[in-house]
Amino acid sequence: MTFWDDRLDDAARQALQPGQPDDLNRSPDVLVVGGGAVGLAVAAACRRAGLGQVVTIEGAARLASGASGSNGGAIAPDMHLLTDPPEMVAFGRRSRALYREWDAEWGGAIGTWPTRWLNIFPAGEGPLVSRQAPGDIEARPLPEEFQPIGEGELGELEPDVRLPEGGTAVLVDGQLGVNPQRLVAALAARAGTVVTGVRMLGVERTGDRIITVRTTAGDFTPGAVVMATGLLPEPWRTRQRWVKGHMVAVAPGPWRLGSVLAGPLGGGTPLGDGTIFCGGSFDEGDNTPDVRPEVSDPMAEALATLVPKAAGARISHRWCCFRPYVEGRQPVVDRLPEVSNGWFAGGHFTTGIMMAAATGEAVAGWISEGRTPELVRTFSLAR
């Protein structure tokens, strides 16, 4: 169990487990397959766009049962300035703007909060963003959004954070954080009909159109279909895989921390009650669902490198999840191959929460207007 589960009210818990209604619409205007953050953002955006009846099906008994409900809740597109192309950053920034707009419109139902990211590097290492897969990082010049922080200024900003001898620190402000499960619950409440415990079994096509989606709860004959299944299902498989990651939560202790800490030395995300989230790892080749303390616990130990008072801190939660990786490490938002009424939105890897809102807007706009939105032209299956 993640630490996010302990931070939900009864209404959110119920929203994550809707079950199956007796009068399920079998011919919706839009059928979304996948009840994670991306799928529900697509469904909510389709409803906002006036696309008619929308049904979302999720195979698990609970929404956001995978990576969508197990991540750190970061909505920090500016952190990708050093590691990703401009299109990725622009897409993330659009998503951040949408979250602010939706949260205000929905009376704070999403519950975003402002974050700043403090990136700390040892002597001789340049500013690189952490939490990226090994081998995918390319050093780039420091963008203007990254403010260098001297040791004295660091002491005023974060008195309990230690800068390593000869090390450097840069600050990125203006980002957001969110409880990802609360986000999913808020989206589900605005996504039309949401169903759990229903798995897709396959599709039937006539020409270039999907005419039937077969599921464990019977057949659907939708107008449009969006696969938000993380990875592409059959028969559209491509170069893709699930990548396991471990996370831990450190219980509150005798330290103060107001910034998200990142960098090659480790780090963590502070929450309002003093808990610190640490993670996640990239456990290539580990396909088991088992939580392995020998992988997770070193992340909490690394926190003490930057926050000495956290040495020996108690770990309150350990968990793992599998992230959807499509070759290229960028999300895929595209039509399904050779299908005129089907789309795929997935492969978001570590950015599903951050990119969900913009992904939903893009897919809904594509269905409505019939043309590729500019923001997602580079996120194609053909790249």
Note down, in words, how this protein is organized.
With 383 residues, the chain is of the alpha/beta class.
Give a nutshell description of this structure.
With 383 residues, the chain is an alpha/beta fold. Helix content is 22%, strand content 26%.
Main attributes of the structure:
2 domains, six-stranded mixed β-sheet, 18 strands, five-stranded mixed β-sheet, FAD/NAD(P)-binding domain, 383 residues, alpha/beta, D-Amino Acid Oxidase, Chain A, domain 2
CATH architecture of the largest domain, by name, is: 3-Layer(bba) Sandwich
Provide the CATH top-level class of the largest domain: Alpha Beta
The CA-CA distance between the termini, in Å, is 36 Å
Classify the oligomer. single chain
- Tally of separate helices: 7
Number of strands: 18
User: What is the typical, i.e. mean, pLDDT?
Assistant: 93
In terms of per-residue confidence, which ranges show pLDDT below 50 for 5 or more consecutive residues?
129-134
Give the SSE order as H and E letters. HEHEEHEEHEHEEEEEEEEEHEEEH
CATH superfamily of the largest domain: FAD/NAD(P)-binding domain
As for the CATH topology of the largest domain, it is FAD/NAD(P)-binding domain
* Biggest sheet strand line-up: 7-2-1-11-18-17
Global geometry: globular
Query: Which range best describes the helical content: under 10%, 10-25%, 25-40%, 40-55%, 55-70% or over 70%?
Result: 10-25%
CA radius of gyration: 21 Å
Pairing-aware structural class of the strands and helices? Answer: alpha/beta
The number of distinct structural domains comes to 2
Strand content: 25-35%
Main sheet summary: 6 strands, mixed
